Structure formats: structure tokens, C-alpha cells
Amino acid sequence: MDPHLERSPVDSIFLIPQDIVVEIFLCLGAIGTARCSMSCRRWNMISNDSRALWQHFTNENFCVFQRQHGDEAKVDTIKWVNVYRYISSCLNENTVSLPARVIFSDDGSAYHGYPPENVFDPQEPAWCTNRGVDHNVDLVVELPTTCIVTEFIAENGGRYYSAPLREALVFLSLEDPPDLQKARKYNDEEGSKWVTDLIDQRSSNAAIKNLETSAKSEKVKGVQCSAVEQQQHPIAAFQFSPIYEQCIETQISFLCEPRVTRYIHFKLLNSVHPEGMYSTNIDIKNLTIRGVELSCLPEMLQCSQTQESTNQRTDPSYERFHTYIPSLLRF
Hints:
Elements lengths: L8 H5 L4 H19 L4 H9 L1 H12 L9 H4 L4 H12 L4 E2 L3 E5 L21 E2 L8 E19 L9 E9 L6 H4 L4 H17 L6 H4 L3 E3 L2 E3 L1 H4 L5 E4 L4 H4 L3 E21 L11 E2 L1 E8 L3 H4 L31
Antiparallel strand pairs: 1-11, 2-4, 3-10, 4-9, 4-11, 5-8, 5-9, 6-7
């Protein structure tokens, strides 16, 4: 009898063609692939040598999309399995409050003495937008290096502030400052709908920190979205009470799926006012970004982190949409 016909089913599994093994790994996800790769030397080699496989897992789990800058050979040398392992290992560290540098704020030049930088310094008073700037305010900040973020916290001040934040959205961008023009489709009522949807989605997702589920496409607003499309959508949202007394001196935390980023865009949609009084601005005491710095990631991705002169951008989306209106009174 032919000895090849006497192979056990277990032996036959390890003879599956390499391209089929990779397809199986794609269905198993990152954790399942890591476990299967320990079953034999051949599967371990297939897993470790497949750049496309681990690039897919890194993109899906952490939204790390490496843009090609005309040097495809350089991008093809990235060891994506090491990138994934490095990010995963950093997630095991304790998260910290990440420092942020304000590079743009569409706040009408800010209310005197209350600039946007205040929200990232607990020792400073609140950030107050200027008169007439009470909706759809864009704030863009840059982190000190590439980081993985897991939580956002917003805090309103006390009764001294007559226009505490009501609703806000948070967007992320890895390689370039975000495009504010594209984000303006989330202004006003559309933005409020996304706030509600994101909060409802978070409440119904009991396994939000499970990396095995984050590799799958998620459903946002009832539409199936790929990881690429998710980059253009808000990642977090804040929604304070519409009642002034319940809105002041309140802190809200939003735990999000781990995402790698360098730039963060906060869109302040609207504010709350005391009964019988309308203030034409937005006041917010603190914004906190929690996560872990990925100081080795830029080198692993073979990309430069040279400082871009964001203060001299010519991008039209960074022109101020709101302007100071002296005729309006601030209460």
C-alpha cells in the first residue's frame, strides 16, 4: 500500500498549501494565529514571514495604515509581526495622561485669559471660546510622539462658567493633522446623532477591550464599516446632561478601542445654559487623553517624525470658521 495514503488526519493538516494556511489565519485573527503558529515549525514560519497577514491584523486592530511615500521597497521591509507584538506589549503597560500641544483652535481667538491650552493643564482655569462661538468648535492637538490611546475624559467647571460643554466628538489621525473640512459633515444635528450612536454602541459592547473582536469590522450607525473607513469617523463622544445644574462640575469618561495616533481632533458641538440665560460661547475645564507612548514605532515603520510647521499651514480647512463678534454679549 502506498505509504502516503496512510497519513493520519493530523499529518494532512500540516500539508495544507501555504496560501490556504494564510487564509485560515486571516479568519482566526491575530490571537488565533499566534496560538496556531505554536503548533508546528512550518506554521510558525508561515505566520512570521507573512507581512501582508500581520499588516492586516495591525491595521484592523489598531488602525495603523502606513502611507507609501514613493519608496515601496522601503515599506515592504517593515516587519509587521514585530510591529503588532510591540503595540500589544505596550497595551499591557499602565496608561497615563498624555501631554498634548494645541496646533489649531477655531474658537474666535479664545476668551481673554482662557486659551485652549488650559484644558490640558489641571492647574489652569477652563478654556472659554469667545463671544459668538457656541457650536461646532474645532480643536486639533498633537501628541509628543506616536501613541496608542484608550480613553478620553472631559470635565466641566462649576457655576462660574455659564456655558459648559454639552456634546463633543473625537477624531484621530496618525500621519497628518486631520482634515477639518471633511469633519464638518458632523456639525450640528448630524454630529449629535453620532454622539448618541457612539455612546449607545459603547454601552452595548461588553467586550470593548477584547482584541479578538476588534479585528472584525464594526457596525457604526447600522452600516458595516472597514477599518479604513473607521479612520474618517469619530472614535469617541461626550454627552453631558442638558440640565445646567447636572452638567456643571461633572466628568465623563469614554473608553475606546485601542487606536494608534499622533493627532487628535476634538469637535465641540454645543453647550448648556442656565435657565433664563443664554451664553454665546462654550466653556470646558479639562480634556484628558489616556494611553501609552509608542516611542519605537516610528523607527519600526521607517517613517520620519520631523516637526511640521503646522502653525503656517496653507490647508484651507485650517482657516478659522468662527470669528469674534463684538456686538454679542457674553454672560
